[in-house]
């Protein structure tokens, strides 16, 4: 082709490129026209640069299967196109030797997708790469290949492609600006239409998946998969939440869109994007998008998804508000029961929440108390709101109907438990749930919780006494250094009797009952107090006490006689035995 014809072809190509602002049309024209402009070219590919993730991704191509090529992303400096991007200068690869050398640092995964896109792995006989430069920034690379052995590019081809690239860059930038606005508008309209028609979060998610032709899932801040576009995407999302929790921790910390290529299945790469779904205060979930291989979400689609995330936030809030309103009313009912008793409630009030006194059910109260939060009022309010959201989530997973009351520093729960459930089994389940609640509160919010579990009662009219049990458990946990921050009323035992007594008075009682024995042990390095404790706990059975202490029965007898002499008594039974044992209990309480 002579120079005049080449120039005329170039002018015609530029005219075609500037005939539309639709990005897809511009790119299709570009990739077709470059083959017309550059004589002998068999294939071409346009890589655009994504600044946020520092990758070049294949946007469009001729002579390649885009289903495979779209899975490719190049680091700056990787392959012929990556090297051209870094140098910002056009490059010519005159022979297959040059192209092999230019592609030697391409990853194995990328090389596989490249071969799949061609039908088989082949290296170009010759290639041209030119950067797309805009205002001193490189926005992409245009690469043209020849696969016929007897043809190669020359310097005039490179100059012509560079000239074409200048005009192509202008057309691409104009189209990107126009298409970004159009794409965002269309996506917002489509998702809003579903939202306004009460389609719900599931339909909104499926609509987004269709718009971007990708798998989508919504995962809340507790890493529960709420909805997904397909069954497969739900499985993938659940596996992601379990296996890659650090990604969500990073997303929470960075508060922006993050992405990573991961391997959820052996030898199968998946690129994941996490878009935070935010309210005005905090992140409530993640819009999660999955792409095969190392494919990159188009920058225009990514911008549109970022803008559309507000629709997901509104829909999640709508769902949550409905649940919270129900639980707030249940909290009002519980507050009335605790303050005024069950009899003060009308049948209509109870019927709204289907919570009646039933002979086949029993009732238990639990209190979670927020311990000394060293926070400002605003910080505490924000964290308390997040804690309540997590509590509501956990309560939804319980098999028992539950009322929840949020009151200042405490959250009170009233559970309706079928009579077939044994109290020990209930205790196990509640301990598990509230252990998890304590862990989450500490790790995510730096809040410490004390938990008290009341007695199970047969009637709603007795719930007030179960609630008083929880208060005693909390009082005990606050007044001692008890290692376990969950305590049931049964575990509290006789120690509940000491809660309202002054500590100095308790110390005086211990000194009166056990002081001489403690002093004797300290002076003579004996173990009389320990022996007395085991003996009394063994129902005053010397043989059993000896077995537990790994000593002879005569040793127990000798020690008991010594104790009698020290405290000036003839017999260790009756009221004196009770006083000594009570002294031991008080001492144990004071040491906690």
Automatic annotation (TrEMBL):
InterPro entries: CdaR-like_regulators, CdaR_GGDEF, GAF, GAF-like_dom_sf, PucR_C-HTH_dom, PucR_C-HTH_sf. It comes from the Bacteria. Residues 22-182 form the GAF domain. Belongs to the CdaR family. This is GAF domain-containing protein. It comes from Bacillus weihaiensis.
């Amino acid at each position: 082709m002579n120079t005049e014809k080449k120039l005329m072809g170039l002018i015609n190509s530029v005219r075609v490129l500037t005939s539309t602002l639709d990005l897809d049309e511009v790119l299709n024209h570009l990739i077709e026209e470059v083959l017309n402009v550059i004589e002998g070219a068999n294939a071409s590919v346009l890589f655009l640069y994504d600044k946020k993730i520092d990758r070049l991704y294949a946007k469009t191509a001729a002579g390649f299967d885009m289903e495979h090529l779209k899975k490719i992303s190049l680091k700056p400096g990787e392959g012929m196109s990556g090297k051209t991007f870094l140098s910002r200068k056009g490059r010519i690869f005159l022979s297959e030797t040059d192209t092999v050398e230019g592609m030697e640092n391409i990853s194995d995964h990328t090389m596989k997708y490249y071969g799949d896109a061609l039908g088989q792995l082949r290296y170009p006989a010759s290639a041209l790469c030119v950067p797309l430069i805009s205002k001193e920034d490189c926005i992409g690379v245009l690469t043209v290949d020849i696969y016929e052995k007897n043809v190669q590019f020359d310097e005039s081809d490179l100059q012509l492609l560079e000239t074409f690239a200048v005009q192509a860059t202008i057309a691409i930038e104009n189209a990107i600006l126009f298409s970004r606005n159009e794409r965002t508008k269309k996506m917002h309209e489509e998702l809003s239409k579903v939202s306004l028609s009460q389609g719900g979060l599931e339909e909104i998610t499926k609509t987004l998946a269709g718009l971007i032709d990708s798998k989508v899932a919504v995962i809340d801040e507790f890493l529960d998969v709420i909805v997904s576009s397909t069954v497969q995407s739900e499985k993938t999302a659940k596996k992601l939440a379990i296996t890659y929790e650090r990604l969500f921790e990073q997303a929470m910390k960075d508060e922006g869109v993050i992405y990573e290529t991961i391997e959820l299945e052996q030898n199968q790469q998946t690129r994941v994007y996490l878009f935070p779904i935010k309210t005005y205060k905090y992140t409530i979930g993640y819009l999660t998008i999955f792409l095969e291989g190392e494919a990159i979400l188009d920058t225009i689609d990514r911008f549109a998804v970022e803008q559309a995330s507000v629709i997901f936030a509104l829909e999640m809030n709508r769902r949550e508000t409905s649940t919270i309103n129900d639980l707030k009313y249940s909290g009002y009912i519980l507050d009335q029961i605790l303050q005024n008793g069950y009899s003060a409630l009308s049948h209509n009030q109870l019927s709204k929440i289907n919570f009646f006194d039933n002979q086949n059910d029993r009732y238990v109260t639990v209190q979670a108390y927020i311990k000394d939060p060293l926070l400002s009022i605003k910080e505490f309010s924000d964290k308390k709101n997040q804690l309540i959201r997590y509590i509501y989530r956990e309560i939804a997973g319980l098999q028992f109907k539950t009322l929840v009351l949020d009151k200042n520093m405490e959250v009170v729960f009233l559970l309706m438990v079928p009579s077939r459930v044994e109290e020990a089994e209930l205790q196990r389940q509640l301990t598990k749930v509230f252990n998890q609640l304590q862990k989450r509160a500490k790790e995510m919010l730096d809040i410490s919780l004390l938990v008290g579990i009341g007695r199970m009662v047969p009637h709603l009219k007795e719930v007030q006494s179960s609630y008083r049990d929880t208060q005693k458990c909390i009082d005990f946990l606050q007044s001692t250094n008890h290692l376990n921050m969950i305590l049931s009323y049964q575990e509290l035992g006789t120690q509940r009797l000491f809660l309202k007594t002054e500590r100095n008075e308790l110390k005086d009682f211990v000194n009166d009952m056990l002081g001489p024995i403690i002093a004797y042990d300290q002076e003579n390095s004996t173990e009389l107090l320990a022996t007395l404790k085991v003996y009394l706990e063994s129902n005053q059975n010397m043989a059993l006490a000896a077995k537990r202490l790994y000593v002879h029965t005569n040793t127990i007898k000798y020690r008991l006689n010594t104790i009698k002499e020290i405290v000036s008594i003839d017999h260790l039974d009756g009221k004196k035995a009770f006083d000594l044992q009570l002294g031991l209990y008080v001492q144990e309480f004071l040491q906690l």
